């Protein structure tokens, strides 16, 4: 969403936001520890308004979907979240579906969070209480999702998806104290077959 072209990346073809756009999304989420999809969409709309840019809600939704698919943002289970020291009552379980605006998103292992131009003002614009993420609970959920995604991609013989997931197995090990070696071995075996 920065003036250097990241805003154009979010509004670009819905199937191909740039890495910079995904990292900008992660940067916005990182400002607050976690945001619901609806809150992230609102934040991106506020940034576009500040930059006098058009708001394309479909492009924003598509950029969020890509960031989630590529593990730059990850759905966070309610047990991993706190708001003002307590588990927030209004976040949905990620298993309820990624289209739900109340699914909480946190920064994932494939992100290199960056702040888009004007994002530093978002904590003053959005009415978001102090939040925290239990990294251990989040990393366990992300590892379980990675395993499930790998099994699905293997069943579908989706080599492109398997290559993305293979990269994520390395990212997650650098991001959290987890071992994704078994998942990686299954992916590599499938890609080599």
Large-scale geometry: globular
Q: If strands are numbered along the chain, what order do they take across the biggest sheet?
A: 1-4-2
Task: Please state the structural category.
Answer: mainly alpha
Rounded to the nearest angstrom, the distance between the terminal CA atoms is 41 Å
Helix content: 40-55%
Output the radius of gyration: 16 Å
Proportion of residues in β-strands? 5-15%
Which sheet architecture does the biggest sheet show?
3 strands, antiparallel
Count of helical regions: 8
Q: Mean pLDDT across all residues, rounded?
A: 85
Number of strands: 5
Briefly characterize the structure.
The protein is mainly alpha-helical and 193 residues long. 52% of the residues lie in helices and 8% in strands.
Structural write-up:
The protein is mostly helical and 193 residues long. The protein has helices at residues 6-11, 19-32, 37-50, 57-69, 122-125, 135-155, 159-175, 181-192; strands at 34-36, 73-75, 81-83, 104-107, 131-133. The protein has a three-stranded antiparallel beta sheet with strand order 1-4-2. Strands 3-5 form a two-stranded antiparallel sheet. The radius of gyration is 16 Å and the shape is globular.
